[in-house]
Amino acid sequence: MILEVQNVSKNFGGLQALLNISFSLPEHQILGLIGPNGAGKTTLFNVINGVFPPSRGTILFRDEDITGLKPYDIARKGMARTHQIVKPLNELTVRENVMVGACFGHKALGLHQARLVADEVLEFLGLNNRADQIAASLNIAQKKRLEMARALASQPYLLLLDEVLAGLNPSEIAAMVETILQIRQQGVTIIMIEHVMHAVMNVSDRIIVLDYGQQIAEGTPEEIAHNPKVIEAYLGDPKLAQRLQEGNGYGDTRGE
Amino acid sequence: MNAWRTPGIWVALLVILAIGLMPIVLKSDATREVVFTVLLSVALASSLNIILGYTGYVSFGHIVFFGLGGYVGLYALNVVGLPLWMAISAGGLAAGLLAFLLGKAILRLRGAYFALATIGINEAMRAFVINFPAFGGAIGISLNFRIYREYGGATSALWLTYYLMVAFTLLAVALSYAIKTSKFGLGLIAIRENEDAAEVMGVVTPNAKTWAYVLSAIIPGMVGVLFYFKNGNIEPGDAFRLHFSIELLVMVMLGGFGTVVGPILGAAGYQRLRGILLTTPVLKDIQLVVAGVLLLLIILFIPSGAVGWLRHRFPKLRQVLP
Amino acid sequence: MENLSFLIDGLLLGFVYGVAAMGLTLIWGVMNVINLAHGPIIALGSFGVYLLFSRLGMNPYLALIFTGAAGLLLGIVIYWIAINRVIEAPHLSSLLATFSVNMVIIGLGTAAFSTTPRNIDYSLGSLTFNTITIPISRIIAAVASIIFTAVLYLFLYRTTLGKYVRAVANNRAAAELMGIPSRRILALSFGLGSTLAALAGGLIATIFPFTILSGGVYELKSFVIGVLGGLGNPLGALIGGLALGLLEGIIPAFLPVTWVPVLEFALFVLILLFRPTGLFGVKK
Prior knowledge:
Chain B is an all-alpha fold. Chain B has helices at 7-26, 29-54, 63-80, 84-106, 112-130, 145-149, 153-180, 183-193, 195-200, 205-231, 236-239, 242-255, 261-279, 281-284, 287-301, 305-313, 317-320, and strands spanning 141-142, 233-234.
């Protein structure tokens, strides 16, 4: 198991953001994390990568207890993530942004090595012709890819992807899905938060559904799509519920 | 390291060296005094830029390191009787140590809260020194004249401090450049641009910030010793003058926040401007007003400073202008 | 008994500190700007009252009202010239923008008034209880400070404009969506902050001699008080002012008077570190 989340809860003051979340993730899998808006998905990411310590529970990463460690400690152990709301280092060039990931993440490369890795990753994500631009000048789709590039450049064992498909058009989504599959093929384990149902259904080996901070279902995409609890949770959003039932890869491809 | 193959940094260092040699060639005491002030400003502004420009933390009371260095240095010379080089080291060490101890605590504060805390520390230090008999309380420390004799009398002691000032200025600029082009510097700039993102990417932010603070404090501590050795006495009101601290911020802003060359140009430009204002009869009385208006215009219309503006305007310059 | 006298003196003065700090903290609370021109505006307030009194023979307390109005105007002008453009910029920009205003005011003030100390020669005598003597000017200053605070709160909580100010302080973007002209409200708030500074300066002029530079001391005290009471919390500032006044009254009983600023600034840094929302309640 690369990651084991055991009975993790998180509350902010009176607000219960996560309650008793438990799952374990074998290596080389892709785990989808879905749920309505405000279900606590990003909070779960934040707890896993150390942005917030959990209020209760334990998190094991590669059989090591990382509960309560800081994000930089966890990053150096080989976990990387992207942000739903992109956080580019605006005044640095695209290459330098990626070099930060390579220099300070898991492999902790020197500047020279980092530059080589950065160029490789930029090539892989199709950003190589932007390498010398400053990050602020990228459009949103490019900034999302930049987030991924920075995360990948650290050569992590585990990659947390927070809505990397949101806001992309169908062809961009297809390209990004392809990229995600390639990353997995390189031996990286992935957890992805996603609203674009057909994509997450297609790509994931297993899926966890959160609702109001609770884990209401876990299983293969097939099982999830027909789980009555899940459909109920999504009923607030009938379109999404419908997409879910249509299952693997049909219907509208746009996320929100 | 290939960063040192960039011509820009060598041009900057050579220009400083050339300016530094000017009074020696001219054998002019007046020129020496002017250049000393400019070099002092360059060294201080370049050091401040490490925490301010690279890391993005507004150290408003940075002068505390300069003042503390001066006090420790004069104490070491006068009371302990150490030679100058050891006094200078002690000044740098004291400043670095203070920054290290403070850093762990106050660098947790972000934005204006950090700026306020640094003001508070400077004021607390000033008030403390006034009550500290070993440092001469409100009167301060006057250097025993006989100490100059060990350096060949007052005149040659003045020249000695001048040579050392040139050396420290070159050192400050070289250090600033070395940091900027290092992996450590990349981490600092990542913190400046987005501290949360930097953390998630693995930058150990508390340590990086503390070391940036320490590195930006050491040279001010050392040149503090030089300045007050040359000056012959030090008193609390002078040593911890917040106004001077803010002037340093202005110099960094003027030249270009976060660039290596910016603080050099900013410091030289600011001192030159001050010189003109103080020696022009019409402007003398209102020099502060003119300086204030100019500062405001720069902040409102060229917030990235001269070098920042140039780099923005001509992106090619990013390669040559560090 | 001398100690008690000090204590009361300090406490009464604390009200005036509170008014000065309220101006600083109001501006911070509404627009997240630390106003480094606060000190010079305080000094201008002193000169306003002084000039009206010595040139026109106006009663100093009447002069205070005109000075406050002038402070409002000055603050609004400063906002539009120096602050409006940097309101969204990083903190360094607004800090240096207000500092440049500081330089301009000090420069003009020094040219116009020199730095010879002035004082308002208008004595109301003092009250004596047993061995304790309290100058009446201090009592009036304290009462006036309470009135200013009350008026500020009536304005903030009982008028539409005040509600706008609070809305903008709370969430500028949301306030704009509701149709509140946020920039004008920011200008007004900067004006109000300056009014409070000018009023404090005017009151100080009735108690102590002053120069154009003496505002700096009160500006630093305002920082300490603002942090003590929680930056952005006007009532906290008044209480903080009292606390500081009390400290200044008490400490000399135990330590030489020169230790007062050491303890004040040490306290300031400690509160920033451990209770950045201030000692009295939490706002924002």
